[in-house]
Amino acid sequence: MDIDFDNEHDWFRERLKESGDEKRATGEKKYLKSPWKFYGVSVPQRYKIIKDWFKKHQPLQPDEAGKLAESLWDSEWHEEKSLAIEILQLVSGRLTVKQMPLVEKMINEVTGWDHLDEIAIHVVGAMIDNDMAALKYLPKWTKSKNFWVRRAAILSQILQFRRRDGDKKLFCELVVPMFDEGVRWSKEERFFIRKAIGWTLREIANVEPEVAFNFVKRYKHKMSGLTFREASRKLPVKFRDLLG
Q: Which 3 state secondary structure label does DSSP give 71?
């Protein structure tokens, strides 16, 4: 399929303008504490836009999706960046480490949890399903000065953990050093890393409670209160009682 990426980007922009709401835009920008501009388009409206576009652009190849996603991602509009992520999700079953340069660029440039979490869980997570070589990137991400990149390393196996799958040994190796927290970590940095570890452990607890319990029991003394609460609140009562 021949895609004129400039024209397609313009098409998305026009649909977003048509669906935008100024009041919603102001509220969302404030809520997300985002530096980007907002059209004020709801999530269901955005999904309809991407669905309508995809109907007319099948089959969509991963390379094509990547080029269009990069164009949208480089925008100064929040919803266009969201569409970039959703374009990649349209080909999630065929993503491999070939698309990792773009995905790493996106992870390094995120400014908030909403985009980061979608990329980590639904783009990197899908990539791991298709190509286990994607796992080798996670240890590198934990060494980044950018805490969003480190958060991505924590969250990227959530899809696998929900299926009682995933590399839990690797997860342990990634997050245990983070319990020590750098002395220069900001309050925001501490919150988002602590929350991500607890969230991921909670996902494990939903399907493998004993695995999560054993981890929490072993490292409870190193965890923040936030991580402990998030990690333990879905554990069966018998396990919670043992944790004190």
A: helix
pLDDT, tens only, 4-27: 888 999 999 999 999 999 999 999
d(CA 48, CA 100): 27
Say which residue the tokens 């399907």 belong to. Answer: 207
The candidate with the shortest Cα–Cα distance to 138, out of 158, 159, 153, 127, is 153
Tell me the pLDDT tens digit for each residue of 170-207.
Answer: 999 999 999 999 878 999 999 999 999 999 999 999 99
CB 72 within 8 A of CB 80: yes
Nearest to 120 by CA among 151, 80, 142: 151
Contact 131, 163 (CB under 8 A): no
Give the residues across from 37 on adjacent strands: 77
The Cα–Cα gap between 34 and 205 comes to 32
